[in-house]
Amino acid sequence: MNETKETRNIKESTEKSKTKLTKKHAEILTLMNELYEHWGLHVLLITDPSTQCESVDLGFRKRMYISPQYNQIADLLRSHLEENTFYLYEDELLMNYSLFRLPPELSESLSLSFDCSDCSDRHLTFSSDTDTSDIDTSASSSNSSSNSGSEPFSPVLCVGPILFQSLSTAEISEHINTLKINPLYQQDLIEFYNYIPIVSSRELWIHTLMFFLRKLSENPITFRELSFSEKAWGFVTRDEDNYSLPSQPDVALTAIEDRYKAEHDLMEAVASGNTQEAMLRCQRFLSYRLSPRVSSPLRDRKNILFTFNTLLRKSAEAGGVHPLHIDNLSRTLAIQIESAMTVDQLNQIRSGMVRKYCILVQNYSRRAYSQLVQTCMNNIDFYYNTELSLSWLARQCAVSESHLSTAFRKETGMTVTDYINKTRIRQALILLNTTSLPVGEISSRCGFFDANYFSRVFRKFQGQSPKQYRSMIHQKTRDSESSLS
Predict the structure, then answer these.
(1) CA atoms within 13 A on the CB side of 60
(2) From the DSSP assignment, how many helices (H) and strands (E) are in the chain?
(3) Could you tell me where the DSSP H helices lie in 273-385?
(4) Cβ burial 133-146 (10 Å sphere, 16+ → b, else e)
(5) d(CA 84, CA 103)
(6) Burial code of 288-297, b = ≥16 C-beta within 10 A, e = fewer?
(7) pLDDT tens sequence for the chain (485 residues)
(8) Using an 8 Å Cβ cutoff, are 423 and 417 in contact?
(9) Is 319:270 a contact under the CB 8 Å cutoff?
(10) What residues does 124 pair with on adjacent strands?
């Protein structure tokens, strides 16, 4: 029987509505995945429990024990999770997981792949019949398998493992004794715990995930906590006869290697002056926690930030910044760190350190220039408040004035005089923003010994006079204060 025009129109309208809904779900799932990736979290869509369950705990049990019973986890995922229910589960290792069985209309078209070898590799992928022209994604192959011959499995979204509080070395040691884990592997377990992200608020975690899940499901979402027995989903202890310990578990080794790679990636981003990339890599680097070195939390955090300051200082040096500029910032930050009275104050300092070093690289990196031009720039940066001249700079560089002028303009796109003025105006902006000094005093401190000439050069670079600029800053400050009151 031929389809009527009305029937075809209904089918086409239904398909368009389904495609629109699928795109909406895809965008929500993409946003959720990007947010959790930024937090350093492990996101996994389980489409085939028999092959993917080893990824649930990042392969930890497999690496610690030769034959952990992951099939028991697979059975639980198949039989215990209901649709439209958000489960929060804490296993015997004190690690927390959030589990949610996806609605059929979403699971048919969306899949999520996760490479367990690197927790940062997460990409959303779509089946071939889904229109993704309007969705910005990175494609990768699905981890799912066919499950032929068995009852269809509705995919489960798993977010975790996470911790809701940090564990001290003493607490970890006590837990090792409770689980009867071989004491030789204490360091492996400590490194693994240091690798797991900490979410400070359990309630915030639940509410955030529930927000996304309600957007994904057309039905009401309920919340339940799971409590599986140790035999059902447990860490196999050394007393079990059916399991034997591997000779050299690589948990601690791999965690340390990953931490050093994250450190290297962060240093590269800072050295390039890429603030956005550096902040993302910093988030990744800071997800690797270090065991306390001293008993005082404040002193321990200060020591860590001193080390972090050194790391960023070396990154800026690799980015071609002169040591004098680096030392000024490094010394300022070191004083702030030592003067902090609380851990919260230290956290505020840490949040700005990466950004400040990236700005330093952006303003003072010299690695793109020849040694001659670098020397000239550094002399201008150091002596901007004196009477600089092309002849004096040429003598410092041991070349003729014409040779220096030609080389400088060729490499920088500006004249030596323009660079001198640009440097002086940059310093004037700092003083106008941070002090109440008269404009004439700022002029002389920045190397302009004629206030009128200073105003003309300032207007050339900023489009307004120094007084107008300061008035604008004061007005912005007043507006900001009034908005907070």
Answers:
(1) 23
(2) 20, 7
(3) 275-286, 297-318, 323-339, 343-364, 371-382
(4) eeeeeeebeebbee
(5) 7
(6) bbeebeeeee
(7) 455 655 555 455 544 444 454 677 777 777 887 778 777 788 888 877 777 777 777 777 776 666 666 776 777 777 777 778 888 888 777 888 888 887 766 655 554 433 333 433 333 333 333 333 333 333 333 333 344 445 567 788 888 888 888 777 777 778 777 777 777 777 777 777 777 888 878 888 888 888 888 877 777 888 888 765 544 444 333 334 333 344 445 556 677 777 788 889 999 999 999 998 898 888 878 777 776 677 788 888 888 899 999 999 999 999 999 988 999 899 999 999 998 888 888 888 988 999 999 999 998 988 889 999 999 999 999 999 998 999 999 999 999 999 999 999 999 999 999 999 999 999 999 899 888 899 999 999 999 988 899 999 999 999 999 999 988 888 887 777 676 65
(8) no
(9) yes
(10) 112
Q: Specify the length of the chain in residues.
A: 485
Residues in contact with 197: Cβ distance below 8 Å, sequence separation at least 6, in sequence order: 39, 40, 41, 162, 163, 287
CA quadruple 353, 356, 362, 365: dihedral sign: negative
259 touches 288 (CB < 8 A): yes
| Letter string b/e over residues 217-231, b meaning 16 or more CB atoms within 10 A of that residue's CB | beeebeeeeeebeee
Sign of the torsion formed by the C-alpha atoms of 420, 424, 429 and 434: positive
* Side chain identity, residue 128: S
